[in-house]
Amino acid sequence: MNNRLRLRQAVTIARLELRRAFFSKRAFWVYGLALFPAVIFFGHGLEVKIRRDRLSARGLSSPALIDSAQKGETVEAVMQRLGKAANDYQWESRRRVRAVKSESGTTIHAIEPAAEARFVRLNITRPTYSGDPTARIYEFEVYGPDSPTNLALHRPATGSVPCSDDQGPDKAFNGSVSGGSSDRWCTHEWDRFLQVDLGTPVMVRRFIVKHASAGGESEESDTRDFNIQVSKDGKIFATVVTVTGAGYVDERTARRTLTYFDGRREARLQFTDGKMVSRDNRELLNFEEDRQVFAGVFQFFYLRLAIFFGCLGIFMNLFRGEMLDRTLHYWFLAPARRDVLLAGKYGAGLVASGVIFAGAALLCFAMMLWPQDPAAVQLYLQNGGVAHAFWYAVAALLGCVGYGSVFLAAGLLLRNPIIPAAVLLAWESINGFLPEILQKMSVLYYLQSLCPVPPPSDKSAPALLQLLLSPAAPASHLGAILGLLVVTALVLWIARIAIRRMQVSYGSDV
User: Fold this and answer.
1) Residues 310-327: what's their mean pLDDT?
2) What letter would DSSP give residue 106?
3) Range 402-432 burial, b when 16+ CB lie within 10 A, else e
4) Model pTM above 0.70
């Protein structure tokens, strides 16, 4: 009779506490944590359905015809056989390359007719292709009409302040480019110019500029934009050469992507200059891949994070929240044993967390199935899919059973329960690196043993990390359930002792 009365009291307390468990402002964020993966899967499915409808509306192509497209075929041949594409995207790529047959780092500039000049000036507006503001000229040569003689060789030179004393303007007129950085003119100044005095006014027709790569530096350091001016008196200058992108030409490549759809696969045919270079067939949905993704989400997000922190928010609040609100003493004055109060509150937290997280896991599972092919889904459900959903829900529920008991006890025993929560999270996080016997001393080990599909492994992880990570062999379903229940019973027994000895003093929260 007493046991029956205690059971009724525990049920009554649980019913009264359900509101706190479901709608506590301190734990309302739990719903967002639980529903987040389902929202992601729903968004993915919605995007796939919209894309499938859009591609289908533009016409379906035969899978055999799509597979018949081969590298080297022309756009015209492919479209004649496959018909109009669902998507046809064309663009032109462009890259800067050296002009054909030009000497590396050297540009030649002839003017017609020849001009009379004593002073020749090189003005640099954009010194490099890389964006480096430093101008570098290894040699600047000036030639007259039909003359092989460099009129500027060893002539007096001036220019912007050089980068260093051994890189002055005279180095650009010494007839050499092989001496490294000390055999060039270099400047960091904003007004970059290099000027040579030919001695007397002479007729000039051709200029040769040897840039950074002529001296062995990177082509990106070659002068990009500059002009050449001539003057008879050194005061009035006339521009005779203007250069943009010196020594380079634009190489243009026509590119095109044709997209065909056969109802299941999206095929992207890539063409370069009118010829096919690749074919990328991809399924809009890969059922097996999505199942693996769900298994990873469930084990790495739900079990390790969502249920862990969700139970922290719900169960910790059952006693600790009442201490903060200074209402716990009302329960202690009620005509009910304290272990009955513990059972009632734990039951309320378990119902709330179980409904939230087991329900959210099943909703996420449904969102994973929603956009898939109906025939494939039906076959999956008939061959183990229903069992998979069941065990995912059971794992979520037992996660609430195990973690809930731990956080309920922590709320009773400790003034700052966040510390044991952090310790427990660290223990669960390194679980796979521990010896097998220690792995079995965690809630996570038993929960993972209940999961019907193992999570996807990270094959790109370092070999040493994979060697250290050695998960223990999973327990049987019965063994996992019994193990969790034993751990839960032990923790609740400790919580029962704690609540019996507990004295309410709101000043110290004990």
Assistant:
1) 77
2) E
3) bbbbbbbbbbbbbeebeebbeebeeebeebe
4) no
> Mean pLDDT, the chain, as a whole number?
85
Q: What is the rounded CA–CA span in Å between residue 498 and residue 401?
A: 19
Burial of 365 (0-12, 13-18, 19+ CB in 10 A): buried
87-98 vs 248-261, strand pairing mode? antiparallel
Q: What digits encode the pLDDT tens for the residues 353-364? A: 999 999 999 999
pLDDT score recorded for residue 101: 46
Domains of the chain, by residue range, sit at 14-54+286-500, 106-246
Report the alpha-carbon distance of residue 8 to residue 2 in Å, rounded.
Answer: 10
CA 2 → CA 290, 336, 373, distances in Å? 52, 11, 56
d(CA 221, CA 335): 88
Q: Sign of torsion, CA 312 315 320 322?
A: positive
Those residues whose C-beta lies under 8 Å from the C-beta of residue 256, and which sit 6 or more positions away, are 75, 88, 89, 90, 91, 270, 271, 274
CA distance 348 to 318: 9
136-150, 199-213, 388-402, 464-478: which has the minimum mean pLDDT? 464-478
Specify the higher pLDDT residue, 466 or 16.
16
